[in-house]
Amino acid sequence: MISNQILQNTIDGLKTIARVDFEVLDTEGKEVATTAEVPFGGRAEAAEFVKSQADSQEIQGCQFFKIYDDQQPEYVLVTIGSDENAYLVGKMAAFQIQNLMIAFAVGTAVGVNAYLSRCLGEGNRAEASRAAMNGLFLAFCGGIAFLVFGILGARAFIASQTTDAQIMQYGADYLSICTLWCMGLFLQCMLEKLLVATGRSAFAMASQLIGALVNIALDPIFIFGLFGVPRMEAAGAAVATVAGQWIGAAAGLTMNLLCNKDINLTLKGFRPAGSTIKRIYAVGIPSIAMNAIGSVMTFAMNNILIAFSSTAVAVFGVYFKLQSFVFMPIFGINNGMVPIIGYNYGARQPKRITQTIKLAVFFAECIMLCGLILAEVFPHVLLGVFNASPTMLAMGILALRIIAIHFPMAGFNVISSSVFQALGRGTLALLVSVIRQLVVLVPAAWLLSHTGNVNAVWFAFPIAELVAVTLCAVFMRKCHRDILLPMEAGQKTAAAV
Fold this sequence. Notes:
Elements: H1 4-18, E1 21-26, E2 31-34, H2 43-51, E3 56-59, E4 62-69, E5 72-80, H3 86-121, H4 125-152, H5 154-161, H6 165-180, H7 183-197, H8 201-224, H9 234-259, H10 274-305, H11 310-346, H12 350-377, H13 379-384, H14 390-403, H15 407-422, H16 426-449, H17 454-457, H18 460-496
Antiparallel strand pairs: 1-2, 1-5, 3-4, 4-5
Helix pairs in contact: 3-4, 3-6, 3-7, 3-10, 3-11, 4-6, 4-7, 5-6, 6-9, 7-8, 7-9, 8-9, 10-16, 11-12, 11-14, 11-15, 12-15, 12-18, 15-16, 15-18, 16-18
């Protein structure tokens, strides 16, 4: 049985985050812990609820939930209120800058991944090692840049997003820690890409898993102040995040040094080489810009949606979290696809490139169709994962069903953009991203918002994706004509000779 103090600490932390009052009752209806100044009522009904077959039930305007211990009801959790979550809004503001950080880290790593794989395909191991070391050098520089931002600009950025003192405090605390200690993110991302580029995806996954498990384990400890650790709330979530990133980076470095024989990581090589960096950023800069555009889009959409309500902003934030789960397998496909295409591009093997693209598109579409079905049939279940209030459910169910229409198109677009990057045509991927998010999505959302109906705004997503899928189809044909067909012609000529 959990101690009453731990229960009190837990629901205090939940209230801080969710802005909802909680009460924990025992199976007889007696109060164990509460965040409410005035009793909820309904305690007499708790004992009857425990005897029922239901795991949750609405009673007297409150939501009752059973908490089990060894398959037996141990407590009853009661919630009331549907005020939007200050912590969520603050974290969403911080999420924009965090996305920008990730954009630099991932963009540079993608450039290194594509170029390093091509070097290995060409049999140039010396240049492959130089690409790896220059990648780590660039990751270090990126970490320094965002450290400076964290010192000078984190609080000012949050202040530009809101005037709510509490939101500013949560957002600034979270963002300051993430930026000041972001070197772990940059190094972790780069070291993982080095493993992927050399065909050691299992090691990359292992380093990611180690970092994620550390993050998950430390989150409740630092947020709620468990095991004697000071209670840190939003700052605690940030501390857990950066700790996971640094440990993941350490794991990635160890695996590269011990298990990656295709590249040679030495301190001697840790210096810039202009020609190598230029080739890295031929792919990397468009990738960075693509990810950064996402932050701009999020900022713009939040400003459009806040005119309706904070619930609309929260629904948008929850959708992005759900989207990350749906898109995650496709990003995994990309991680495996890019080095294969890059290697075969260097080795001049167009048929293997074509086969890889076809397989990637097939599996991506299967995944996105599953995501579409889940969003259309079970939106209430997906939103329930985030403990959505009745107000959020009323808006979020329809929003999710409308937005999810674009999933199958998005699957093809994500794969296509990675193909462009792997073939050294990152500007094509950037062009698609700019047109999709800034030229179509945001203006369409703004125009649709003038209908006065927030549900109309969600249609901007499938509209933008339709434009993007058309562009991707055109650019894929262009890459086939300009890159793959000449390779095939060269192979035929060589065979004839």
